[in-house]
Structure formats: structure tokens, C-alpha cells
Amino acid sequence: xxxxxxxxxxxxxxxxxxxxxxxxxxxxxxxxxxxxxxxxxxxxxxxxxxxxxxxxxxxxxxxxxxxxxxxxxxxxxxxxxxxxxxxxxxxxxxxxxxxxxxxxxxxxxxxxxxxxxxxxxxxxxxxxxxxxxxxxxxxxxxxxxxxxxxxxxxxxxxxxxxxxxxxxxxxxxxxxxxxxxxxxxxxxxxxxxxxxxxxxxxxxxxxxxxxxxxxxxxxxxxxxxxxxxxxxxxxxxxxxxxxxxxxxxxxxxxxxxxxxxxxxxxxxxxxxxxxxxxxxxxxxxxxxxxxxxxxxxxxxxxxxxxxxxxxxxxxxxxxxxxxxxxxxxxxxxxxxxxxxxxxxxxxx
Length: 348
What we know:
Layout: H1 8-35, E1 63-68, H2 74-86, E2 94-100, H3 105-115, E3 120-125, H4 154-157, E4 164-168, E5 172-174, H5 179-182, E6 191-193, E7 195-196, H6 207-210, H7 213-216, E8 226-227, E9 231-235, H8 236-241, H9 244-258, H10 266-273, E10 278-279, E11 308-310, H11 317-322
Parallel strand pairs: 1-2, 1-4, 2-3, 6-10
Antiparallel strand pairs: 4-9, 5-11, 6-9, 7-8
Helix pairs in contact: 9-10
Protein name: Hexosyltransferase
EC number: 2.4.1.-
Main location: membrane
């Protein structure tokens, strides 16, 4: 059969037709992207938690607790809230202040309300644009998310009537009465937290920091000790008056210019507060149970009494349990898991 060739005119016509299709298709795609509204992710479904009531000796004093509502960590948040209620002598005194990104508030409110019908809580919208341009890339992507920096702006978001608050990460469970931590004597400090003065402080900053005599001056006269910002009691009034949000932002600006650290939102806190916090018992942050920031390998518990278990690091207990490759310590988290399809529950 003789092959049928196209004339030059026919080729031009065909090419024009293809270009028209491509242009129309591309325009449609671009228009579609512009018009597409961001939709909230499908949230996991949780079982309703038991109702926890105050004992007869409870007074009306509120205990204010702040947490973020990251849709990727919601399962951890629910477990943390349950642990706080279950071990509290006066659970109805707990008042939760949740920080969420825009567009997700309604779905998150419904999820919390259906899981904890009696919970005293409020959700505040955190504008990621406050911090997005200030974030420098760190060693782990999860540390670069805007909500990870929301704690910096906490004092500006919650009501001015709140003068003290406990900030907690979402990857922990409390196995003691949180009122004990709430009543810590601040001794004039802005922040109270477990601190670790034998940690290698040089690890948290780069050579660019240690080789700059002007930057290093910030640590002069201090005994710089590490503390984990996932568990903090904050004097909100002193934070506001001392303009500490702006001070943290200033260090983030330096980081943008000189790359003086690798670890997300933690180092600016260390530069400002290390050696100048109220130290509380280590039992209130048994941290590092998620392993390091690279591999998340299993770790064992540190010796001594425990009031709070914290899976800081890459490995999260719900992910390791679901993968059927849990660490031994993950089984301590499992009883607080309210995820509906989870095999690990209080009912078992």
C-alpha cells in the first residue's frame, strides 16, 4: 500500500490545530488552578472519650493549656488530651487553647467536639503568613511547617486575661496530674521547663555562630542549658511586656542571613532563654522517645519517675504501631489512642 503523505499546507494546518488544542487545554488548567478552592483534608475519625468530672475538692481555678491542631498530628493531639483528662484530679478545670491553620477550623471543631463533648476549648486561627517568610529550611521537613512556629505568637493570640499557660506538643501523653506542673513557682522567670545542663550546647548551632564574636556575646554570663520547647509553662504577661515574640523573630532574621542553626523553632528559644528559665523536674518531659531527627530509631526510657512521655524526634508512636514495627515505649502511648479503626484502645 502506498504511503499517504501530507502537503506543506496540510502540515501547517495540523500543527495549528494541535497548538490550538494545547493552548486551550493549558488555559483551562490554569483557570482551574486559579478557581480551585483549598479543601480541608479528610480527618481521621475518633471514638468518643469518657466524660471526666471534677472531684469534690476541686475549686474553680482554670488551668490553661495550649496545643496546635496539625491535621497530620491530630491523632497524637487527641491522645494527649485524653491523657490530660484521665490523670487530672479536676479535669473540668482544664481549658484548652488550640491553634489551627485557616480553612480547617470547622472540621477540627467538629472532630474535637464529637470526641470530647464536655471539653472546655477554643480554636484560634494562626496566620501562616506571619512566619512563612521567616522560616529557614531545617534538617527535617516537619520542623519547617508554620504551625511549628505558632508557639512564638501564642501570647499575641490568646485572650489578654490569660496570664499563664502550659504549652504542649502533640506527640506526648501526660501520666500525672497536670495541676502539679501548673502550680510551679516561676521565680520571676518567663519560661519554666525541664532543663539539661550536661547536653552538648555547641551541637545546636553552626560554626557561623560560634565564630562570630558579636553573636556569641548573647551567651556571656549565662550557663547555657538545653530545654525542649514542647513542654513549657509560660508567664504570658511577662512574655508580652518583654516583647519576646519580636526577640525570637530577630534571631530568625539573623538565621536567614547567616545560617547559625539547623533545628527549626528551638534554637531562637535557646539563644534567648537558655540559662535563664525556671528549671522543673525532668519527670515532666521524658523526651526523645521518637529517636533522632533522621532515622527515628527506638530509644529506652531514662531512669527515674515519669509524669510526661514525649515522642520528640522523627518516630511517632501511631505510625510505628500502624506499621506493626513499634518500639517498646510506643505501647505506653497506645492505651490513649482514640482512633476509631485502631486496635489499640482503652476498651481492650
